[in-house]
Specification:
Elements (H helix, E strand, L loop, with lengths): L7 H9 L6 H13 L3 H13 L6 H8 L8 H14 L5 H14 L2 H11 L5 H13 L3 H12 L7 H11 L5 H13 L6 H13 L3 H10 L5 H13 L3 H14 L5 H14 L2 H15 L5 H12 L3 H4 L3 H14 L4 H13 L3 H13 L8 E6 L2 E6 L8 H18 L8
Antiparallel strand pairs: 1-2
């Protein structure tokens, strides 16, 4: 009880009052310090237990392994791993799963992979999910889908936890085909998809811009929760479909669902996109009273955009306000490239070229560069990423040749008549 409440000193005091502690007593004490994040004390009590000739069981070693959560505790984790192999506890698949998880937290991905390969023949669903989690932890997005394919070849089938892990990775890649494959795989395996997983699929499609697919999934849901509504509303707003976002918000309120902070960010963004200044301003002023949501920085940003639109100071040639806004941003984040670029544009719009040169010189001195926009296209399961003035793509010569031909055709279509010598 003391251990679960985080009162480890009291837990230790209570344990010391036991004259002859049994395995259950040691188990409670070791688990208390392990879950409390004290790896050294857990290891010390584990050694004391063995010294008193009490034999640790699988539950104790699993609790102990959970104490090792960073590279500084890897040495201790390896010591416990060695003990587990000597005592034969590594025959227990649950213990093996915990070992894999320990290496995922404390070591590099190669160690994790080696350990998983050793237990793969007896791996259960938890084992595969642990390995998928390790891939995410080590940012091995490509490995996630390889592990998933290997898993599908075994008698194990994905569950909602598997899907949640994979969907998190799908949101970070540019492959719409892969995302469709994950969804179709879930349907084929007959997984009972709950609301949280369905929300994950909706979020996945929204992030890749496939709003039509996201809406189809949403319309199939019997009882969408606030995340379901919010995800689609924000998606519509971000991609410029303000009317759809506002209509969906109206349906949400009619259904009895209660909006949260994310929902209202989406609605305010939608109001900004379609020019509903009065409606957005009224929503902002009543959001705490009517919806119980206290305005945050994101809501204030949406209202600034609603009232002034982006680059308002540049549009109005208001150098002083724009300069003050940029300086305030740079005090908070000196490396903010957008603030530097916007300040340059404000100075340039009024002909203040010396100020432009000063800001650009400051950017060069501090190594600040504008983050270029990126786009990608998927061809035959391969994603090709492009950025402004990209010169690294292996097919760049052919690409730029084609662009020149297209531009030439556009000029002819626009009525350009080349001069004849």
């Amino acid at each position: 009880m003391y251990g679960k409440c985080g009162l480890l000193c009291y837990s230790k005091t209570a344990f010391n009052q036991i004259e002859n502690p049994d395995v259950v007593s040691w188990k409670a004490l070791i688990a208390a310090f392990a879950y409390g994040g004290d790896a050294n004390e857990s290891m010390l009590n584990f050694s004391r237990m063995r010294y008193q000739e009490s034999r640790p069981d699988d539950i104790i070693v699993r609790s102990l392994l959970s104490a090792f959560t960073d590279p500084l505790t890897l040495c201790q984790g390896k010591q416990v791993h060695t003990y587990i192999m000597k005592t034969g506890l590594d025959l227990d698949v649950l213990v093996c799963n915990t070992i894999v998880s320990m290496y995922a937290n404390c070591s590099d991905f190669n160690d994790v992979n080696k350990m998983f390969n050793k237990i793969q023949s007896k791996a259960d669903l938890v084992s595969w999910n642990v390995m998928l989690t390790a891939c995410v932890h080590h940012k091995k997005s490509g490995e996630v889908f390889l592990i998933l394919r290997m898993m599908m070849l075994t008698h194990n089938r994905p569950d909602n936890i598997t899907l949640t892990i994979v969907l998190g990775v799908c949101g970070k890649i540019a492959s719409l085909v892969m995302r469709h494959q994950v969804y179709c795989s879930a349907l084929k395996t007959g997984i009972t998809i709950d609301v949280s997983v369905m929300n994950g699929f909706i979020d996945m499609y929204v992030k890749c811009g496939s709003l039509e697919s996201a809406r189809k999934l949403f319309d199939c849901m019997e009882n969408p929760d606030v995340f379901s509504w919010s995800c689609l509303i924000v998606g519509y707003a971000q991609f410029g479909y303000g009317e759809e976002a506002l209509n969906l918000f109206t349906k949400m309120r009619s259904s009895g669902a209660w909006p949260n902070q994310v929902t209202l960010v989406g609605v305010l963004t939608a109001c900004s996109h379609v020019g509903l200044v009065e409606e957005g301003w009224q929503l902002f002023n009543t959001m705490e009273e009517e919806h119980g949501v206290v305005p945050t920085r994101e809501h204030y940003s949406c209202v600034v955009d609603l009232l002034a639109r982006l680059a308002a100071c540049k549009t109005r040639n208001n150098i002083e306000v724009g300069k003050r806004a940029a300086e305030n941003i740079l005090q908070i984040d000196p490396s903010n490239s957008a603030a530097h670029v916007m300040l340059c544009n404000i100075y340039a719009s009024t002909g203040s070229w010396k100020d432009v040169a000063t800001v650009r010189s400051l950017m060069r001195q501090n190594g600040i560069k504008k983050v270029p926009g990126q786009s990608w296209i998927e061809i035959k399961d391969n994603s090709h990423v492009f950025s402004a003035e990209d010169g690294f793509h292996p097919e760049r010569d052919r690409i730029y040749t084609m662009l020149e031909e297209l531009l030439w055709l556009q000029m002819l279509d626009a009525g350009y008549v080349p001069l004849r010598g």
